[in-house]
Amino acid sequence: MRQSIPESRRAVVKLQEIVFPGELQEGTDVTLVGEPFSALLFREPHSSEVITLVDASGQEFRARILNLVPDHASVHVFEKLSKPTESCWKLVLLQALPDKERMELIVQKATELGVHMIVPFKSRRSISLEAREARQAKAHRWQHIAIRATKQCRRACVPYVAPYCSYEGALAQTREAELKIVLWEKAQRSLRSFLRDVSPQRSVALMVGPEGGWDADEIAQAQTAGFVSVGMGGRILRTETAAIAACATLQFEWEGL
To answer: What range does the domain containing 69 cover?
Structure first.
């Protein structure tokens, strides 16, 4: 039987990892209740599915769902992971909404590359969500795509896809980030060069613009908000390519891959 958390509660679910309150061991059965069970429901699970758990010490394990009922789940822990699926730092991707189905690709690949939060937003030269869906006549399911990608790549953490917002709203969500980066084709320095001169931070906000590029006022706003502008080389990349390449570069340079 498939269980899922109600849509009305998705936006307030904070638990992106299934954290068991004690220590886990291979070959044991445990019961998930309370917050760990809510985190499991966020993944739209089904019986016999394999999931990634985190125990109280931070160790990650693979486990199979044995029984799934409305208020708890029983799981069998069968593998202790030798390498963590999560980076030791948090990456937030702020993405100007692209046309067509490129956002779905960005969400999928950003999930695989370890992004913890994805914020779609409207910039001056990007398409609006209303215009995008009017053309495609198809409701977006970005959180569902992130969940499916999380299952495929065995991550412990499901990225949270924030509600679509304004450019100013996206900037406001980066106040606590220790490092803020905006990709800009006119920047004098490359992302790779910049990263080699700074030490890894606990939280990074990466902002990627629309296909038509940034408005000068938007770059000025970002810089005022503490963003450092960097480029991705001499070639002009599509927005989805830039997002994927930048996330991969960050993870590679800071040993997240």
So the answer is: 7-80
